[in-house]
Design a protein that fits this description.
- One of its GO terms (molecular function) is methyltransferase activity.
- InterPro entries: CFA/CMAS, SAM-dependent_MTases_sf.
- This is Cyclopropane-fatty-acyl-phospholipid synthase.
- There is one protein chain.
- With about 300 residues, the protein is an alpha/beta fold.
- Helix content is about 40%, strand content about 20%.
- It is built from twelve helices and eight strands.
- The chain has helices at about 35-40, 45-50, 70-85, 100-110, 120-135, 170-180, 200-205, 210-220, 225-235, 250-265, 265-270, 275-290, and strands spanning about 5-10, 90-95, 115-120, 140-145, 155-165, 185-195, 240-245, 295-305.
- The longest helix has 17 residues, at about 250-265.
């Protein structure tokens, strides 16, 4: 029997039937909730005005030149499930679950039992409402808190996902070790993240004006790393690398579509929170300016081989 939608802060509510908990380290220098929530705790209506209907706030996957944003985001969610080798009824941990696009999609389309983790309180209420509307409340649990410190049963998930969330986690060693401990044998971890092209580019651009604007005005604390740091963290934790995909062009096109939507809905966005449309536009323009030059976007899949 799967768990109901829950919003228990810093605790794995609904999972008490599992007998063990992870023994991996659970402490790190974590960002404050206010740092990471300053953007995600905007009113949900703001995101509904420029994202796709699922409110997926990460790269889509465009199969043809004619694909819409909605088609690209649905294709991306199927892509994630395929890379994970997800079977119907599997158990998925969605770290940084956002507005529940992946959490709800996997529960509906793959009949998966999904646990979503996010520090942003508004997102949990939204996911609970949508899960009830979709009839999957019995398959969806959400936990409000930081992944580094929430208590979760070890060896209890078939798949773990981090779509655009590892950038907000300071200690890669803790994150990858915890993810591996929570997976069953042969389970998979999917990480998609924007990365500096290499260490030299990071050193040159990490404190430039555009980067600091995104930190100060959008996401608060964040540490964008080169891909090599993510690979090293995964390998040091004991993962085997299963696949790597370059999704940079897809993210550029995703942001182009978001920009069109922001411009079309600017008055309505600003009616909810004055000045938000201009801030969103600048953030999205900064992100798109770097693709292929200073930044890339990758999807990394790791397997717990033993």
């Amino acid at each position: 029997m799967s768990s109901p939608v829950t919003t228990a802060p810093e605790a794995a509510a609904g999972l008490a039937t599992e007998p063990t908990t992870s023994t991996e380290p659970t402490t790190s220098t974590e960002p404050t909730t206010s740092d990471t929530n300053q953007h995600y705790d905007l009113p949900p209506e703001v995101f509904g005005l420029f994202l796709d209907p699922l409110r997926k706030y990460s790269s889509g996957l465009y199969r043809t030149e004619h694909d819409t944003l909605e088609q690209a985001q649905i294709a991306k969610l199927h892509f994630v499930a395929d890379r994970l080798g997800l079977r119907r009824g599997g158990r998925v941990l969605d770290i940084g679950c956002g507005w529940g696009s992946l959490t709800l999609f996997m529960a509906v389309e793959y009949e998966a039992e999904v646990v979503g983790v996010s520090p942003a309180g508004r997102q949990h209420a939204y996911i609970a409402q949508r899960a009830a509307e979709l009839g999957v409340s019995d398959r969806v649990t959400t936990i409000q808190g930081h992944f580094e410190t929430v208590e979760l049963p070890s060896g209890s998930f078939d798949a773990v996902t981090m779509l655009g969330s590892i950038v907000h986690m300071p200690d890669l060693d803790v994150v990858f070790r915890r993810a591996r401990a929570l997976l069953r044998r042969d389970g998979r971890l999917y990480v998609s993240e924007s990365c500096f092209r290499n260490a030299a580019t990071r050193a040159a651009f990490d404190h430039r004006e555009g980067t600091e604007f995104v930190r100060a005005s959008i996401f608060g604390w964040g540490d964008m790393r080169p891909l090599s740091d993510l690979v090293a963290g995964a390998e040091d934790a004991g993962f085997s690398l299963a696949s790597l995909d370059d999704l940079t062009d897809d993210y550029r096109r995703t942001i182009d579509d978001w920009l069109v939507n922001v411009d079309a809905a600017a008055e309505r966005i600003d009616a909810i929170r004055p000045g938000t449309a201009a801030t969103l536009r600048r953030y999205l323009e900064v992100a798109n300016a770097g693709w292929g030059y200073t930044t890339k976007h990758y999807a990394l899949v790791c397997r717990k081989a033993r």
